[in-house]
Amino acid sequence: MSAEREILTWESFGTAARALAQAIADDGYRPDLILSIARGGLFVAGALGYALDVKNLHVMNVEFYTGVNERLDLPVMLPPVPNAVDLSGARVLVADDVADTGATLRLVRDFCADHVADVRSAVVYEKPHSEIKCEYVWRRTGRWIDFPWSARPPVVRAGDGALDA
């Protein structure tokens, strides 16, 4: 991994989200619902939901990254898993912050595939080595990305209640 990082500010995120929404609208895609991949995709899905006037947002919790450039062997869906009946016949836009390896997006798209009318993906960043090529991408980079929502350590660590100084 390069020591150089891509830095996304909150202001740049606003620009990125609006540009993604415009690309989706210009393409004529009108999703019935947006399926967010938690956690980073929550921000993207919320912004796209407002910009595309889609109020039907769903969340899928997937664990893959455990640290900077550290990940599990395979992504794992965490409960609650969305009910496939809720997705039935819908045009679904899967939203995430980054398509890095693409494994998380593949897991979510495969989950949707047999239930939905159409599934497409929108991400802020796509890495060149991603096994999934998203329909809507704001920027492509091979660098590690510092997102504004995860650039700083947690205020409280899960399980211990300790505060960072």
TrEMBL record:
GO terms for molecular function: glycosyltransferase activity. Residues 6-150 form the Phosphoribosyltransferase domain. Pfam families: Pribosyltran. InterPro entries: PRTase-like, PRTase_dom. Keywords: Glycosyltransferase, Transferase. Coiled coil: none annotated. It comes from the Bacteria. PANTHER family: HYPOXANTHINE PHOSPHORIBOSYLTRANSFERASE, HYPOXANTHINE-GUANINE PHOSPHORIBOSYLTRANSFERASE. This is Hypoxanthine phosphoribosyltransferase. It comes from Actinomadura viridis.
